[in-house]
Amino acid sequence: MDERSALIEPHIPSLRRYARGLLRDASSGDDLLQDCLERALRNWSARRPEGDLRAWLFAIMHNLFVSGARLRGRRGPTASLGDLPEEPPIRPTQEDRMLHDSVLDQLQKLSPEHRAVLLLIGVEELSYRQAAEALGVPVGTVMSRLSRAREHFRQALRDPPPLRLRTVK
C-alpha cells in the first residue's frame, strides 16, 4: 500500500456513510465513494499538503454528488431493482423500523444543501470549519443551514405525520 492509500483508508467508512446518506441507496453510494476515491488519487498533486485531508475528501464527494444530481435531474429518477437491504446486527422492532424510515424520509425532504450539512456535522462529526471547507461555503452558511435542518427535524418530531397502515394481502 502506498502512502496516499494509507492516508485515505481511515476516511473510507465515514465517506461511505456520507455517500449513502446523500443518495439513500447503498449501491449508488458505493459508486459515489469509488468515484470520489478515484478522483482523489488522480488529483493527489492538487491537494494542499498543509490542508485538512478529511475535508478535502468530503469536498470531492460533495462536488461529485452535486454534479451527479444535475445529471439525475436531467435524466429523471432511476430505481435500483434487486438490491437486498443490509441486515443489522440486531433485528429491529417494528417501532424501530418505523422510526428509522421516518428519519430517512425527513432527511430526504431536506434540500441537498441542508442534508449535506446535517450529515457532515451530525453524523460524520466534522467541525463547522471542515464542513464549510468541504462544501465550499462560509462557516456562517454552514451554521445557518445546520440550524434550519435541525429545526426541520424538531418540527417533524413535534407534528409527526399520521401513520398510514396498509393492507397486507
Strands, helices and their partners?
Blueprint: H1 3-8, H2 12-23, H3 26-42, H4 53-75, H5 94-109, H6 112-123, H7 128-135, H8 139-158
Helix pairs in contact: 2-3, 2-4, 2-6, 3-4, 4-7, 6-8, 7-8
Kindly describe this structure:
There is one protein chain. The protein is mainly alpha-helical. The chain has one domain (3-76, 93-158): Butyryl-CoA Dehydrogenase, subunit A, domain 3 (Up-down Bundle), CATH 1.20.140.160. Helices cover 67% and strands 0% of the residues. Helix 2 runs antiparallel to helix 6 and helix 7 crosses helix 8 (139-158). The termini are far apart.
Give short descriptive properties of this protein.
sigma factor; RNA_pol_sigma_r2; DNA binding; WH-like_DNA-bd_sf; globular; Butyryl-CoA Dehydrogenase, subunit A, domain 3; mainly alpha; 169 residues; transcription regulation; 8 helices
Number of strands: 0
Which topology does CATH recognise? Butyryl-CoA Dehydrogenase, subunit A, domain 3
Which regions have little confidence, pLDDT < 50, spanning 5+ residues?
none
Our measurement of the CA-to-CA distance between the termini, rounded to an integer number of angstroms, reads 54 Å
Beta-strand share of residues: under 5%
- The radius of gyration over CA amounts to 18 Å
* Helix/strand class: mainly alpha
Q: Please give the share of residues in helix.
A: 55-70%
Number of domains: 1
Number of helices: 8
CATH-derived architecture = Up-down Bundle
- Major sheet size, sense and barrel closure: none
Mean pLDDT: 82
Name given to the CATH homologous superfamily: PhyR, sigma-like (SL) domain
